[in-house]
Amino acid sequence: YWTHRAYHEVPVLWRLHAVHHSVKSMDWMAGSRQHILELLITRTLVLAPIYVLGFSKEVIDAYIVIVGFQAVFNHANVSVRLGPLRYVLVTPNFHHWHHSQDQEALDRNYAAHFAFIDYLFGTAVKSDRLWPGKYGVLGDYVPNGFVKQLKFPFTWKG
Ligand SMILES: [Zn+2]
Ligand SMILES: [Zn+2]
Predict the structure, then answer these.
(1) What range does the domain containing 34 cover?
(2) Other Cβ atoms closer than 10 A to 140
(3) Measuring CA to CA, which residue among 3, 13, 12 is closest to residue 47?
(4) With bands split at pLDDT 50, 70 and 90, how would you rate the model's confidence at 40?
(5) Total number of domains constituting the chain
(6) Distance from residue 104's CA to the centre of ligand 2 (Å)
(7) How close is the Cα of 3 to the center of ligand 1, in Å?
(8) Is pLDDT above 90 for 37?
(9) What ligand has the least distance to the C-alpha of 74?
(10) Burial 63-90 (b: 16+ CB within 10 A, else e)
(11) How far is the CA of 4 from the centre of ligand 1 (A)?
């Protein structure tokens, strides 16, 4: 939660993370759109403590499978509400709101696994609607194209 929130609130990190948010339509592949530096920084920040804390190989393997599944599932174009459990676990509906340009959704729904963390810190989207209206970065300033997006964090004058 805090790593993801930092990517939104620290300007130098947002330059990297904006690439992930440049998707205009959501599907299961959208989670794979990430700047290579974000990928390396996040994996290190998450996996290094788990490794240093001495978790067994089995636990780390299970964690990687769950993370891999949720990264694909949360972006997928399926409506999974889970009833009241949607306040506990992150669903596609929950993460789709995170990708919205709608005013009520900006810098909201940061959690990747447990939705209740956003309810706890007051960053959950309050909308009754199932899906947001429009996806992407507000202002649409991230360019299209692999190489342009690779260079974007270093060339953006924003
Ligand atoms: Zn984000
Ligand atoms: Zn995402």
Answers:
(1) 2-155
(2) 12
(3) 3
(4) very high
(5) 1
(6) 17
(7) 10
(8) yes
(9) 2
(10) eeeeeeebbebbbbeeeeeeeeeeeeeb
(11) 6
